[in-house]
């Protein structure tokens, strides 16, 4: 089996690519400067190309059975100009090759009316610009006439998730844990997803492609933080400082800096997802897999902090 991974240098794409290679897949990765990112023994065939160039994507996808669409504009920049053209190129490549498209879903698609309990068929009425783009992206996939697999999970954390709420909002990568901030309102639950578990779930579903519908969508339970304090407490334990208490996230700072820092503006848009519980049912997933891959929270958090350079490996 062969797969093309778009976004192989990112958290989701990289994790899925490594796992597919370990399972015996031939993994091709598209990058504008492959010589700069290729590493000996990484199990990938790096190809020169741009996800914004349709011919590059179609050519790279020749002969593959799976296209992992895990590419996003870095730092949330230029979403409106880049996200939809890239998915159109992936759709064109899937039509030419007959491959299934694998997409990591987001909760941006849902507005407050779908909360707190989200199902695969919950109405998608986003209240943010990014959410509206993601809804249109999934609509194009649904109407494309090609096999599609969407796996939606909570906020990612993991050893290679520098561009995440965990790394940008709770701790400071590269520095010993001396303070923890909590974006959640007091008592509000939040759903997290350990990235290696997400990748394992995706690959297990791909391995059951013959059992999936043409347009397949599944949600993960991941790690449910019932009152918004369990994740920060796990960080304190992993850092060897169980007495360390989390402080409130400085939303006011985002408000001040948003006009000047694009990533702050985008993060501020997501505040509604921290002011009320966000939880997804994995019943449909369990019906296919029987169980969901699940790394214990303390183990997952310690590995994440090690990967981010916040604690030393034991």
Automatic annotation (TrEMBL):
Gene Ontology cellular-component annotations: cytoplasm
Pfam families: NAD_binding_10
Recorded superkingdom: Bacteria
Membrane-spanning ranges: none
InterPro entries (UniProt xref): NAD(P)-bd_dom, NAD(P)-bd_dom_sf, NAD(P)-dependent_oxidoreduct
GO MF annotation: an example: aldehyde dehydrogenase (NAD+) activity
Domain annotation NAD(P)-binding: ranges: 7-160
Protein's recorded name: Nucleoside-diphosphate-sugar epimerase
Organismal lineage: Bacteria, Pseudomonadati, Pseudomonadota, Betaproteobacteria, Burkholderiales
